[in-house]
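Entry 14. Ran structure prediction on the chain below.
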Amino acid sequence: MNIYEYNGQIISIQTFIDKLSAYINKGDTLSLEIDTMKFGKICRGLDKNSFLESIFEAFYRLVGDGGNIVVPTFSYSWGLDSPKKYFDVLNTPSKVGIFPEFLRKRTDVIRTLDPMFSFAIWGKDKKDLSKNPNRTSFGKDSLYEKIHKSNAKLISFGLKKYDPTFVHYVEQYFHENIDELDYRFIKKFKGTIVNHEGNEYNDYQYCFSRYLDKFPDLDFDETKMVQTLTKQDKLTKIVIGNAEVCISDCESVFNVGIEGLRRDRRYFMTNRGIKGCMDKI
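Output, structure tokens:
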């Protein structure tokens, strides 16, 4: 099926498969951070649902029935901007784009029970990946630890830069196992959850959060990480139409991040006074 048109060229499902199959294998776990609107103009006559199904189909055909597709459906439901502190795993909408919303509504997908940083998971291992006994977004037994153990592919699809949220897992690992970072701390959030069975109850969640009052001008900066990954040939950039698909893997990003933090405790931060997504918590 044709999906986009850019500069007179048609971009189809097969275009994505042909471009990405050298870097994505059958059985892979993919962690996708995605913007579907940058590659080109959506082909005439393609409705919204068919368009989004086509994007999913491309990744499904790349990983096959033995793979997994993991997409953020972050809602920040217990964050500073959410006075109600209420998260309904089946009905609370995502705040990170139309494809995550499409995916979380599929009947063959499990959404993780994380009121701040939830994910929609499709695939063979979705039940195991969605379990989080420690109620932590970035720590032990979190989804991020699980995709690290399986060395999932970290993919930026159509975004302007490569800055996977996985780096906050890297930061927390460093903070808990190597040396404390002064700009983040493990914060306990409380609120109301409605789970997959429709049961409503009060619960809690741990997130590795910024000290907003102490360091109001700090913001995440991926520049040094991207430079090192590129130099080590650990980051692939594929131009398709008017956008890029960037691919690395958890182990490469983890190793680069840990070594960067050993040299510089502010490796992932810069002073530019621009608020990022973690300011919501």
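The chain has one domain: 2-280. Will compare against last week's run tomorrow.
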